[in-house]
Amino acid sequence: MKKFYQKHEKFLVLSLIAVILVIIAVYAVSFKTQQINNTYHVYTVKKAAPYQGQGVIKANSTYTMRIPKKAQLTTELKTEQDVKKGQVLATLHFPEKETELKQVRAQISDLQAQIQDQQGSLTDNSSNTAAITDNSTAADSNNDSDQAQQQEIQALQDSLAQVSENQQTAAQQQISELQSQLSEQQAKEAELSEQVENQVSAPFAGTFHLKQRKNGQIELKVYAQKLVLEARVSQDDYTKVKPNAKIKIDNSVQDKVKKSKVSFISKLPLKQKGTDQPAYKFSAPVSSSFLLGQRVNFSLPQKGLELPASAVKNKRVYVLKADNITQEVKLKGKKSGKYFIVTSGVKAGAKVVSDPHQGLQNGDKIHQAK
């Protein structure tokens, strides 16, 4: 044995060293793996960041009227002229309606003439009937006339009276039809009279603007004097904008920040370029120190504290205590986009695990990822 050890001493020593190194390596790998599995990203809880973005200064209201191509427009105003509520902006004249009105008036004159003719004919028939009656009476009073002749005259008179009565009935029916047509044409005349020419008045005080579109159509506009910031908020950030919420608006013209409040937020979605997610319009009133069409930056302060939404599981979060020991804490708040807005449960400055997995338990000691 001694001879074997002496003969293989060097080999045995090297083998022992190799085994020790393998054990150390295995332990180091195992320790490293365990450390990696127990390493987490940590986030420091802070006050919720304000919601920021860009918007455009627009008129509070805009009146738009596209002038029909068949209309002739006349106005005494100049573009960008200030107007008062109710002030006449322009007069529209429709030549085709005027031509149609002349035709209707001609038909009215013709119908009135026909009615007068029928009424005259009716008067003549009445006179003839009266004459026949008078002749009949005279014949009855003549005692010397032959009885047979009187009977023939009476028959003839009766026949003429019947014809006269039929003519009167026909004339009366004709007059009734003509009067009905006349009433229709007179109603049409009244309607066309209003359409031939009409005035366009300002619905509110503002700035008058007149321009010609690419298709040649003339467009009339009135921009209200009151201005508003108009901006959009994405679907994920919708809860960050509320009616009456305070908003700060950067006026680069005066190099000042103006304060206002959100006056309106729409519930109707708008399409956004480059994404399938909708956006929603909101607005806030601004002073006349801003310019119409001016692009501005805005900031909406947010209440509460924020931390990554990924850190919250079932409204619970792991807070780091001394020596990186975890403590499970229940939160109150709600998700807002990529963040969870906390109303109670943790304080600003607290450190929380931002990417916990199912294996993490209350009281575990973790390593912070660098």
Automatic annotation (TrEMBL):
The chain crosses the membrane at residues 12-31. Residues 133-150 have a biased composition (Low complexity). The keyword Cell inner membrane does not apply. Signal peptide: none annotated. GO terms for molecular function: efflux transmembrane transporter activity. GO terms for cellular component: efflux pump complex. The keyword Membrane applies. Residues 116-132 have a biased composition (Polar residues). Keywords: Membrane, Transmembrane, Transmembrane helix. Residues 116-150 are annotated as: Disordered. This is Uncharacterized protein.
